[in-house]
Amino acid sequence: MRVERLGQDKIRIFLTFDDLHERGIEKEDIWRDIPKVHDLFNDMMEHAYEELGFEVIGPVAVEVFALPAQGMVVIVTRGRSQTSFMDDNEYDDDIYEMEVTLEESDDVIYYFQDFEYLIDACHRVREVLTEGGKIYGYNERYYLVLDELDLENQSLYNTVIALLSEYGEASTVTKYVLAEYGKLVIGENAVEQLCEHFE
Fold it and tell me: Exposure winner among 3, 140, 172, 189, fewest CB in 10 A?
């Protein structure tokens, strides 16, 4: 579990599938209202408090993004607490008022610390994937984004993820963040273009 602060009232938590399995939670369970998912949320909030001093009391907005073969990104935003308008007996600090948004993405996004690793990865991926992909620069890293449409079947999907994992790391940054804050390096057919320019 990795936690990072996005703003005064917003944090991002990255959960790997190992984090979920350790707690006996399957990917599909996240969408269900069951005690072990509540326990997971409480663990995340405790972790966020220990690492960042981020304390949650009252209303929160929770966005969950499922990423393929990587895990889940959970974005928690604190709302304005209404406790000053409530009687102390009506409010329990242990209960969160949650507004939950769930999104699942089949996009594959990997980042590379070094441009050479990105080149090597693209040469390997090009053996099975001849078109598609975008490359962004963001926070001194290079990101390869493959949209779900670029990966037409499960076998190809799994192969591409296995190849990319040899050279890079699964990203917790979504393509929307990259499009807004990153620098677009190659906008289309990035794998093929990079391979043609760097033998």
Answer: 140
Distance (Å, whole) CA 149 – CA 153: 9
Domain extents for the chain?
2-104, 108-197
Rg (CA), the chain: 19
- Say what the pTM is: 0.59
Q: For domain 108-197, say whether CATH 3.30.70.1950 is its number.
A: yes
For the chain, first and last CA: distance in Å?
A: 37
- Residue 80 in tokens: 């304005």
pLDDT of 49-98, one tens digit each? Answer: 999 999 887 788 888 877 766 678 888 888 765 443 344 444 444 444 55
